[in-house]
């Protein structure tokens, strides 16, 4: 075995070994093309070696192997370059297929003897070959031409790459140099030289493969595809015409297409929503809704080498959850803001002044009422005094005093309030100060202040007070007038009654009966007048609500006995019989004994006065009432009775059943009015029933335990 | 010896009427028209009982009574207030001033006599 054949086999083995790891996934498409390139070279070398070593080997088969390897190596080298530079055409398979067309032509036209000539060291002439006819297709089409094209494509971007990519630059340069250097060798027609050139070129390719994939195997350029495909974030690369240049797996599955199908497609067909958004302009806030998910869009320009324009890398971030949360947050914030605004509106619309003060008594915030009161805008962050009384320079203003007192109480945690008449604001105010404790607030305590304007209420009260004072004064004046009138009337009455009694005594002494009788009439008239005066006085007291009631436990029988005793003489004067019956169970009631006695005396007296030669009766018994027990006092007579038309006004002052009989019956006309008033003061009722010619019955019902409120304790007329 | 009554009354009619009625009942009646005069007469005449109107010129009945009761020599002379003031507080006022009894006008003569008798008896017991 010649050394040439041996080295060819060794190089083929090296290429083969180098090719295998390049097929690994992490090297991506470019790796696979490079592997195919190297394998093509290796196959060509092995094919040549077989021709050289084995005489019996069919020359044509060796030729096929050699040619196919060389040609495939060239085609795949171009494909590698395109993939490496990320400029894979949409249907790159067709390009590769196109590369095999010249290969097929060459295989059909080439002479089968050529590998034999090379590998068996047969001179060309001896092989019947003309050198250029043999070399031109092989060299130009599948060694020189692809190599030079690849070098021209790769060198400029590699030259711009950082230092760590220098090996690649070097390797491509080496391949180019070796290839160009092998050209003169073919001119010499030295077959050995030509073989050496092929071997060296293959070694240069090996070196290039190592430089591209071994020295920089972990370079981002080669892991990028892989990483992108592992991403769950859809990434698309678009060209200027918005056609899809590349897309990762996530984008493909998200858009339910294959990557291959997407590449080269206009974006409008792949994803109309995204296309629309890109045309309108993408911002940081752009959100796309796709298939129930929400995406944010990031665009980054991708400068395409060779000045072919700028592509765009489109990254779609799935922000569905974040978006949902952000929306919920925004809604919650809107709700809170709305609530705050509503609350603010409530505070603003309150009729009271509502303010927040800091611990030093400075007004932090106040509602619109402050402006209404002071007419000044924005009193915020001013001392309370200046806020309430802007421009007031009074040194001892009550506000400061007020604040000091309030602060003391509030600092102890209590609320403080004070009513004050503000001369500056012209209002009557109630100040409320309250400590304001907000959890987590470390600053000195703030204070809530609410000021109520009670000017109007205060004025009403003032007016009411004045009116009441006036009424009381008038009442006092009336009482004084009545007392004076009573006094002034009594003085002459005293003389009238006194003189008539004096004269009556004289007349009786001198036996002048006519005179004595007349004088008695004067006396009676005088006493009647006295009764009127007393009645008017009592009635005015009752009407003024100044008649007092003294409630105590009263044994009813004691009072009725006394009343009966008082009227006995009066009853008998008219020849009447008094019937008096009291039930055993009447017992004790809570009432005013004096008034009760007066009631009974009045009623019995009336009955006696209006009845002649008849019967006057008093019956007392106890009854169960709705709300308790009551005692019934019934005063009945067998007198003339009262006409029905007079009954309704019977209890009004100056009403008497028989005015025509006034000369005969003595009564003031005030007795029943006073009686009724007394009964009502004791919480009872009085009723009357009467039949003309048959008699009259008064029924008084008094509760055993009345709820009675008398007037203020004011003097009553001395009972005489 | 008949009972000496000092009647203090500014109203001439009433003074005349009452003194005549009292004299008719056997009383020795001396009269005064105002408080000052009443005090003078009380000191000079030492009446057994004084009937005192309350509304008087110069010095009113309450003051005169109070002065009388402050004078140790006159303090034990009973005083009956005679007044046309009929309110309960008037009675209180009179009793506070030192009056021993109280009688409203128009005077119930029989009642007045009873009161005079009672006070005179009390005075003579002392």
Question: Can you walk me through this structure?
Answer:
The complex is a heterodimer of chains A (720) and B (126). In chain A, the strands form four sheets. Chain A has a six-stranded antiparallel β-sheet, sandwiched between helices. In chain A, strands 2-1-5-4-3 form a five-stranded antiparallel β-sheet, sandwiched between helices. Chain A has 23 helices and 18 strands. The longest helix of chain A has 56 residues, at 455-510. Chain A has 720 residues and is an alpha+beta fold. In chain A, α7 runs antiparallel to α8 and α8 (166-187) runs antiparallel to α9. The relative contact order of chain A is 0.04. Chain A starts with a helix and ends in a 17-residue tail after the last strand. Helices cover 56% and strands 16% of the residues of chain A. Chain B is an alpha/beta fold and 126 residues long. Chain B has a single domain (4-121), classed as Response regulator (Rossmann fold). Chain B is 48% helix and 19% strand. Chain B is built from five helices and five strands; from the N terminus they run βαβαβαβαβα. Chain B has helices at 12-24, 35-45, 61-70, 88-97, 109-125; strands at residues 4-8, 28-32, 49-53, 79-83, 101-104. Chain B has a five-stranded parallel β-sheet, sandwiched between helices. In chain B, α2 (35-45) packs parallel to α3. The A-B interface holds A 483, 486-488, 490-499, 501-502, 505, 526, 530, 534, 537, 715-718, 720 and B 11, 13-14, 17-18, 20-21, 24, 55, 84-91, 102, 104-109.
């Amino acid at each position: 075995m010649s050394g040439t054949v041996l080295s060819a086999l060794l190089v083929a083995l090296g290429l083969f070994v180098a090719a295998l790891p390049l097929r690994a996934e992490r090297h991506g498409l470019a790796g696979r093309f490079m592997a195919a390139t190297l394998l093509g070279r290796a196959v060509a070398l092995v094919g040549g070696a077989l021709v050289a070593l084995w005489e019996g080997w069919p020359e044509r088969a060796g030729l096929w192997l050699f040619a196919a390897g060389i040609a495939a190596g060239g085609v795949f080298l171009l494909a590698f370059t395109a993939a490496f530079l990320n400029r894979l055409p949409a249907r790159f398979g067709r390009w590769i297929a196109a590369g095999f067309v010249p290969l097929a032509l060459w295989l059909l036209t080439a002479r089968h003897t050529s590998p034999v000539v090379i590998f068996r060291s047969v001179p060309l002439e001896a092989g019947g070959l003309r050198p250029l006819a043999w070399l031109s297709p092989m060299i130009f089409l599948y060694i020189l031409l692809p190599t030079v094209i690849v070098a021209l494509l790769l060198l400029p971007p590699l030259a711009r790459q950082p230092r760590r990519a220098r090996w690649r630059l070097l390797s491509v340069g080496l391949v180019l140099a070796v290839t160009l250097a092998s050209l003169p060798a073919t001119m010499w027609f030295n077959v050995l030289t030509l073989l050496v050139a092929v071997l060296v070129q293959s070694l240069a390719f090996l070196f290039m493969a190592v430089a591209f994939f071994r020295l920089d195997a972990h370079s981002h350029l080669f892991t990028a595809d892989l990483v992108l495909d592992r991403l769950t974030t859809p990434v698309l690369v678009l060209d200027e015409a918005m056609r899809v240049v590349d897309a990762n797996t996530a984008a493909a599955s998200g858009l339910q297409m294959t990557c291959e199908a997407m590449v080269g497609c206009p974006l409008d067909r792949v994803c109309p929503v995204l296309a629309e958004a890109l045309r309108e302009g993408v911002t940081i806030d752009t959100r796309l809704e796709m298939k129930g998910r929400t995406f944010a869009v990031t665009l980054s320009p991708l400068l395409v080498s060779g000045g072919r324009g700028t592509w765009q890398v489109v990254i779609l971030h799935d922000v569905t959850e974040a978006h949902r949360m952000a929306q919920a947050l925004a809604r919650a914030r809107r709700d809170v803001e709305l609530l705050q605004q509503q609350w603010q509106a409530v505070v603003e619309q309150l009729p009271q002044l509502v303010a927040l003060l800091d611990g030093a008594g400075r007004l932090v915030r106040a509602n619109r009422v402050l402006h209404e009161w002071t007419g000044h805008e924005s009193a915020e962050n001013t001392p309370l005094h200046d806020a309430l009384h802007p421009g007031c320079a009074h040194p001892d203003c009550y506000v400061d005093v007020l604040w000091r007192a309030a602060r003391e109480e509030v600092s102890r945690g209590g609320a403080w309030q004070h009513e004050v008449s503000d001369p500056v604001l012209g209002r009557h105010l109630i100040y409320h100060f309250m400590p304001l404790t907000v959890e987590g607030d470390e600053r000195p305590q703030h204070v809530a202040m609410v000021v109520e304007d009670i000017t109007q209420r205060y004025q009403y009260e003032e007016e009411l007070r004045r009116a009441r004072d006036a009424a009381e004064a008038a009442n006092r004046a009336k009482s004084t007038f009545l007392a004076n009138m009573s006094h002034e009337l009594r003085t002459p009455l005293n003389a009238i009654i006194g003189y008539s009694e004096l004269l009556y005594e004289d007349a009786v002494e001198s036996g002048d009966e006519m005179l004595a009788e007349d004088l008695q009439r004067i006396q009676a008239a005088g006493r009647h007048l006295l009764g009127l005066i007393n009645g008017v006085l009592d009635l005015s007291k009752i009407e003024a609500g100044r008649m007092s009631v003294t409630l105590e436990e009263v044994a009813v029988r004691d009072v009725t006995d006394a009343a009966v005793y008082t009227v006995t003489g009066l009853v008998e004067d008219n020849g009447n019989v008094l019937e008096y019956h009291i039930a055993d169970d009447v017992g004790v009631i809570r009432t005013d004994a004096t008034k009760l006695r007066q009631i009974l005396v009045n009623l019995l007296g009336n009955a006696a006065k209006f009845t002649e030669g008849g019967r006057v009766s008093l019956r007392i018994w106890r009854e169960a009432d709705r709300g308790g027990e009551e005692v019934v006092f019934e005063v009945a007579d067998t007198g003339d009775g009262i006409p029905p038309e007079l009954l309704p006004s019977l209890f009004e002052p100056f009403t008497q059943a028989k005015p025509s009989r006034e000369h005969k019956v003595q009564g003031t006309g005030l007795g029943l009015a006073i009686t009724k008033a007394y009964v009502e003061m004791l919480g009872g009722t009085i009723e009357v029933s009467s039949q003309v010619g048959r008699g009259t019955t008064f029924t008084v019902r008094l509760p055993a335990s009345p709820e009675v409120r008398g007037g203020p304790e004011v003097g009553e007329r001395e009972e005489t | 010896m008949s009972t000496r009554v000092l009647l203090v009354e500014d109203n001439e009619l009433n003074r005349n009427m009452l003194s005549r009625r009292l004299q008719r009942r056997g009383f020795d009646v001396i009269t005064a028209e105002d408080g000052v005069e009443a005090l003078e007469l009380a000191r000079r005449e030492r009446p057994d009982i004084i009937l005192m109107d309350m509304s008087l010129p110069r010095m009113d009945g309450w003051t005169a009574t109070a002065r009388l009761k402050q004078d140790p020599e006159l303090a034990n002379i009973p005083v009956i207030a005679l007044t046309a003031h009929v309110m309960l507080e008037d009675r209180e006022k009179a009793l506070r001033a030192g009056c021993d009894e109280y009688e409203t006008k128009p005077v119930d003569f029989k009642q007045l006599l009873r009161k005079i008798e009672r006070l005179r008896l009390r005075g003579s017991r002392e």
